[in-house]
């Protein structure tokens, strides 16, 4: 499924993400959801299945006091949707990488989504 319906599912996912709405995010997922975070070409986080995704999402909401993904562009490639994203977040806790409470993160990246039977089955975040 690619097109307007796919874009709506992705928009709903990002809206839930921005609102720290884990239940809203999870409601859009296939039970076997695969999630990967790729930074500088290397996978630094990977999960499979709704429960593992939920655990990761619940942990990540503790890290930011605010966060916002904004869709810049969208490209349909075969059975996937590639979305260019602007990301901004405010850190809520001191992190091992040196970021401190109140630090602002801004970056651009892309997310790749695959949708099967009306649910997200793959989310890959690239930065």
Structure write-up:
This protein has helices spanning 4-18, 22-26, 50-60; strands at residues 29-39, 42-48, 64-77, 80-91, 104-116, 119-126. It is an alpha+beta fold and 127 residues long. It has a single domain (4-126), classed as Nuclear Transport Factor 2, Chain: A, CATH 3.10.450. The protein has a six-stranded mixed beta sheet with strand order 2-1-6-5-4-3, covered by helices on one side. Strand 3 (64-77) and strand 4 form a beta hairpin. The radius of gyration is 14 Å and the shape is globular.
Shape assignment: globular
As laid out across the biggest beta sheet, the strand order is 2-1-6-5-4-3
Number of strands: 6
CATH topology heading: Nuclear Transport Factor 2, Chain: A
| Portion in beta strands | over 45%
- Percent helix, as a range, is 10-25%
Domain module count: 1
Query: Mean of the pLDDT scores?
Result: 94
Overall radius of gyration: 14 Å
Determine the structural class based on helices, strands and strand pairing: alpha+beta
N-C termini distance: 25 Å
Low-confidence blocks of residues: none
């Amino acid at each position: 499924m690619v097109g307007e319906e796919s874009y709506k599912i992705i928009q709903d996912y990002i809206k839930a993400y921005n609102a720290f709405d884990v239940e809203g995010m999870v409601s859009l997922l296939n039970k076997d959801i695969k999630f990967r975070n790729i930074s500088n070409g290397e996978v630094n986080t990977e999960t499979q299945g709704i429960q593992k995704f939920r655990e990761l999402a619940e942990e990540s909401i503790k890290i930011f006091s605010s966060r916002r993904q904004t869709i810049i562009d969208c490209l349909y490639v075969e059975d996937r949707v590639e979305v260019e994203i602007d990301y901004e977040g405010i850190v809520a806790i001191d992190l091992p990488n040196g970021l401190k409470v109140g630090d602002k993160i801004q970056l651009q990246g892309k997310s790749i989504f695959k949708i099967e039977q009306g649910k997200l089955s793959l989310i890959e975040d690239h930065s």
